[in-house]
Structure formats: structure tokens, C-alpha cells
Design goal:
alpha/beta; Purple Acid Phosphatase, chain A, domain 2; six-stranded mixed sheet; five-stranded mixed sheet; 34% strand
Length: 169
């Protein structure tokens, strides 16, 4: 199964929309989001494209109830407090906004950890756990909206960075 990975969307709807289109073109049917949506309308592209999503709140999600309520109006969008554990068959995934907020034991109890907060794309392993930060979907700090695609069966991660022509149309 291929899942899309996003974090730190920070209200940049055009970038979110473009990243979701790119993920859909690459056979992604489900997205994990590691927080910092900021406002409810940041979820509109998920609903417009009918993309199922599970995510956690970040530090910049002020109106959590408004964001959660907006998500509940969509099909298959669920939001949780960080950290949150989710299973895909035999694959156990931990979604957390700031990886510094979880213990090493919690990290190692999962096959995958998806996190955000730093806005920087990163992939590393600890024992058998694959840890991925998909970067910043908003592109505010580093200029290019980014995300990733994770194949849960092969543990292959494909990083995505959009150029301006792909998301400023």
C-alpha cells in the first residue's frame, strides 16, 4: 500500500491541492498528515479530491474544534491528538507532530513514524523503525512545497518537491 505523507500545510491551499494531485497521479489513496493545518479550510483540497486522511494536530492548530468539525464533513478525514497510532494490516504507524514529544520506546514500538514540525524532509531508521518527515507542504520556509509517498510493504520513500509552476497556477 502506498500512502501520501504531509505535514505543516499552514493554510497554503494551492500547494496542498497540487501535492494531492501529484500523489493521486502516483496511485496514493490515503494520506497521513503530521499536523499544522492552521485553519479548517486547509482540509478543503482533501474533500475536493475525495482523499481519505488521518492526521494529528500540531502546535499551530488554534481552532482544533473547527478543524475537526470541518474534517468530519468530509469523507474519510479523521484528526487526532498527537501522537496517534494507526494500523494498516500488519503495519503499525505512529503519527506525531514533533518527534521530540514521544519516547524512544514509543518510536521503536512502531514500524513507521511520520512526523513534521521542522519543515525539513528527512528519513532515518532506528533499529527496524523507519522515521520520515515529509517536509513542509506549505513551502513557506524553504520555498518549495514538499511531501512524500511511502510504500508500506517495501519501506521505500519517495520525496516530492513542487516547483512554482506546479502549484501557483
Amino acid at each position: 500500500m502506498r500512502v501520501g505523507l504531509l505535514s505543516d500545510t499552514h493554510d497554503r491551499v494551492s500547494a496542498i491541492d497540487a501535492l494531492l494531485k501529484e500523489m493521486l497521479a502516483r496511485d496514493v489513496t490515503f494520506v497521513l498528515h503530521a499536523g499544522d493545518y492552521c485553519s479548517p479550510f486547509s482540509l478543503r483540497p482533501f474533500q475536493d479530491h475525495g482523499v481519505a486522511m488521518a492526521g494529528v494536530f500540531g502546535r499551530n492548530d488554534g481552532d482544533r474544534e473547527g478543524i475537526r468539525s470541518f474534517a468530519e464533513k468530509g469523507m474519510g478525514q479523521e484528526l487526532f491528538e498527537s501522537p496517534h497510532s494507526i494500523k494498516f494490516g500488519e503495519h503499525k504507524v505512529l503519527i506525531v507532530h514533533d518527534i521530540g514529544d514521544v519516547t524512544e520506546r514509543s518510536v521503536l514500538a512502531h514500524g513507521f513514524v511520520i512526523h513534521g514540525h521542522t519543515h525539513m524532509q528527512e528519513m532515518k531508521t532506528r533499529n527496524d523503525t523507519l522515521i520520515v518527515n515529509p517536509g513542509e507542504a506549505c513551502g513557506w520556509l524553504y520555498g518549495a512545497p514538499s511531501g512524500a509517498i511511502l510504500d508500506l510493504d517495501t519501506k521505500h520513500v519517495e520525496f516530492i518537491k513542487l516547483d512554482a509552476a506546479e502549484w501557483t497556477k
